[in-house]
Write a structure and sequence with these properties.
The chain is mainly α. It contains seven helices and no strands.
Length: 196
């Protein structure tokens, strides 16, 4: 089981990078002129966790069962009499029994990795914004992830989508909705042993 979970790590890490990069870009734009770092940090964390959890959920659904089958088959063959393994019922039963605990473990690991990754990414944004404010300049999107077309893109956004001061309550509520969009998992699970 641990081998199957280990084989899922690249997909998990890819999902976290995609979710955190997407979140950083959107939150950086939305909170560009909002001085409340705590609100921006909470919005980024909630959005990134939701996006990463949903990406991993889709990946897990497609990849985990075949990986468990592949890794459990040789083990079961060594501990169960061959006549019982001629049907795939035993293997299917063991795989089904372990899908939920494995998924809970992956979800917990995704959540932890996402929290650390988005926090590291957003620290740059917050520091650049604080520096601009100290120098009495207009905050800009941090150079470590800005692309040349970002300024042009922001200028072409409809007025309602352009960054300007504190976010409206409707906009803040939109970020709060990400909390409800996360897949439901067992709380406090970080290993297969805890899940089982």
């Amino acid at each position: 089981i641990e081998r199957a979970l280990h084989d899922m790590l690249p997909s998990l890490e890819r999902s976290v990078v995609i979710a955190c990069t997407t979140t950083r870009e959107i939150v950086s734009k939305d909170f560009l002129c909002d001085a409340d770092d705590a609100k921006a940090r909470k919005a980024a964390l909630t959005m990134a966790r939701s996006l990463a959890a949903n990406l991993v959920s889709v990946t897990v659904r497609d990849m985990l069962a075949p990986l468990l089958r592949k890794n459990l088959s040789p083990f079961l063959a060594s501990v169960i009499a061959p006549e019982y393994l001629q049907t795939s019922e035993v293997l299917d039963s063991v795989v089904q029994e372990n899908l939920e605990p494995c998924t809970a473990t992956l979800d917990a690991n995704t959540s932890d990795l996402t929290a650390k990754t988005i926090d590291d990414m957003m620290n740059t944004t917050f520091e650049e914004r604080r520096k601009a404010v100290r120098q009495n300049e207009f905050p800009v999107i941090p150079l470590d992830h800005a692309r040349p077309h970002i300024a042009k893109l922001i200028a072409t956004l409809p007025e309602k989508l352009r960054p300007k001061g504190a976010l409206s309550q409707d906009h803040v509520n939109l970020y709060a909705e990400f909390e409800h969009l996360q897949p439901k998992t067992s709380a406090g699970v970080s290993s297969v042993e805890q899940a089982i």
